[in-house]
Recover the amino acids of this structure.
């Protein structure tokens, strides 16, 4: 079995059509790229017990976003360690292992959701699934660059184009299965019809002489429901969000598709070149910082160019990956309260799909463009334009709070789509950038090592966006409570303002519920929850801009000696 998977059994025969290989790589990347639609799971995962709203015992957004972070960290680490193994065993074996890890990780994660054991979700989807992400991600990159030496940027774009588009298919699939398996909790009636009490910050309803924990849905909470239902009181622990069974079904689908694609991989024979292709003139190539020499994987880590590219990739990814982890939630929070007739749950889910579409388009467009304008110049565009766009998002959020006009939604949508073309383009262009700087011989392994930048970004991005969001929420709640009539507060929540901390901790007091009793004319602060994050992302892009500006060719001593010459750096 292992012999069938080995590299020597997948060397392409003469006359093999090289365009068959991108099909296999895109299929695998469409499966693992569904990780970019993680935010579709968030509303269901933070309501496992409450179903229609978060109950006191439910996971928080910060906790479930860290599952996504764990997957991205595992992706980068596994890609880094698998670099040499990939070069030795070939892409088929790596692709098969990736299928087992990604599909199996989903199944273990489903068990964690069903039993409400967060550590199992971290282990399954986050760690094991993340290893599958890393192996599946790197398996086609060096292969396609060798198949298309005449168009390195386009080859890298094709290799990982599917990863950017994975959410385009994954988001609707996830939403479809969640709705299919969803079961609404028991509905008790309106607030006025029930005797409600508050104990230790939790809300309870008296039913037939027995207290049952409940969640309350008000007018401001309807947009956040998985499937719309009536306002009123629902019993905690009596329904299902459907996300556990969704994990089971998708895990099986992804495993089958990835396994079939892995068996379609082929590698070119030693010394193969495209028919009619003439290697570029060395003088012209040098002017564009394209080397015709090679640097070993371990030697690449001794160059400053590796760490400059590491910084460029890390900070470019950090700026986008935090938004990806909470995309659906962010769209709902910024515009859901100000434009509720437009921005509902379906609109926010479509936003995630469109992110995937532009992420995928950007991977192919920018990677192909880099073949003509150069990799360094392409990153000038990513980083410079990205700074301007990230700084403009708080401007649109501020204005939509004061003036709920659809024009601000259109601007935000357009700006974020451009950002994500460059986010995807950064991933697709970096393998060709590495091949230009370090040569093609070990580009797969070097690319794997560089993806530790993605692991780091997978921590920094979600940490920044969730921590700064929580800080903004805390500040906004304190500000709103200071404006609210204490008597109205006590009537609304069944406890006084002196118990605010307990009420917030148990998710009884939220911004949306405070806005229901806030004085007329009070501006909803929800749309500004991400402003600080956007300014931080712009600052990180500026640091990456400086690293890219300082890029120069690798010093002679780091190259492998040319056959027939003496290695002058020896000793």
């Amino acid at each position: 079995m292992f012999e069938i998977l080995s590299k020597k059994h997948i060397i392409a025969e003469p006359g093999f059509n090289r365009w068959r290989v991108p099909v296999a790589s895109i299929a695998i990347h469409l499966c693992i790229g569904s990780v970019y639609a993680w935010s579709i799971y968030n509303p269901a995962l933070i309501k496992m017990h409450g179903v229609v709203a978060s109950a006191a015992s439910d996971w928080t957004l910060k906790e479930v976003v860290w599952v996504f972070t764990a997957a991205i960290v595992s992706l980068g680490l596994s890609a880094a360690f698998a670099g040499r193994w990939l070069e030795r065993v070939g892409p088929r074996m790596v692709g098969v292992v990736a299928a087992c890890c990604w599909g199996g990780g989903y199944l273990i994660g489903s068990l964690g959701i069903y039993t409400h054991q967060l550590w199992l979700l971290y282990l399954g989807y986050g760690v094991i699934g993340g290893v599958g992400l890393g192996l599946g991600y790197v398996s086609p990159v060096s292969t396609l660059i060798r198949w298309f030496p005449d168009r390195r940027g386009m080859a890298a774009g094709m290799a990982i184009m599917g990863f950017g588009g994975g959410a385009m298919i994954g988001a609707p699939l996830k939403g479809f299965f969640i709705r299919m398996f969803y079961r609404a909790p028991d509905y008790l009636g309106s607030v006025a019809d029930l005797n409600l009490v508050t104990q230790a910050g939790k809300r309870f309803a008296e039913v037939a002489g027995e207290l049952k924990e409940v969640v309350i849905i008000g007018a401001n909470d309807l947009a956040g429901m998985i499937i719309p239902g009536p306002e009123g009181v629902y019993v905690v622990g009596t329904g299902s969000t459907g996300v556990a069974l969704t994990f089971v079904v998708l895990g099986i689908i992804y495993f089958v598709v990835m396994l079939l694609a892995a068996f379609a991989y082929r590698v070119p024979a030693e010394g193969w070149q495209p028919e009619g292709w003439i290697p570029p003139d060395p003088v012209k190539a040098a002017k564009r910082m394209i080397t015709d020499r090679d640097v070993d994987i371990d030697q690449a880590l001794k160059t400053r160019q590796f760490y400059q590219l590491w910084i460029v990739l890390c900070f470019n990814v950090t700026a986008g990956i935090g938004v990806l982890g909470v995309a659906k939630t962010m769209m709902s929070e910024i515009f859901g309260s100000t434009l509720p007739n437009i921005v509902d749950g379906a609109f926010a889910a479509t936003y995630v799909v469109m992110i995937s579409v532009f992420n995928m388009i950007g991977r192919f467009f920018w990677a192909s463009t880099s073949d003509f304008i150069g990799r360094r110049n392409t990153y000038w565009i990513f980083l410079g334009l990205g700074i301007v766009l990230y700084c403009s998002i708080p401007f649109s959020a501020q204005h939509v709070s004061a003036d709920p006009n659809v024009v601000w939604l259109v601007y935000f949508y357009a700006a974020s789509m451009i950002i994500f073309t460059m986010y995807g383009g950064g991933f697709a262009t970096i393998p060709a950038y590495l091949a230009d700087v370090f040569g093609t011989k070990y580009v797969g392994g070097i690319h794997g090592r560089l993806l530790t930048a993605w692991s780091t970004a997978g921590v920094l991005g979600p940490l920044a966006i969730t921590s700064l969001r929580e800080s903004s929420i805390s500040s906004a709640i304190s500000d709103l409570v200071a404006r609210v009539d204490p008597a109205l507060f006590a009537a609304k929540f069944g406890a006084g303002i002196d118990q605010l901390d307990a009420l917030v901790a148990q998710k009884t007091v939220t911004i949306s519920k405070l806005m229901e009793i806030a004085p007329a004319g009070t501006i909803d602060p929800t749309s500004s929850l991400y402003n600080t994050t956007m300014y931080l992302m712009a600052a990180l892009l500026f640091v990456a801009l400086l690293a890219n500006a300082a890029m120069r060719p690798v010093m002679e001593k780091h190259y492998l000696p040319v056959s027939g010459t003496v290695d002058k750096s020896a000793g």
The first strand starts at residue 187 and ends at 189. Residues 2-183+239-263+300-484+519-558 form a domain with the Growth Hormone; Chain: A; fold (CATH 1.20.1250.20).
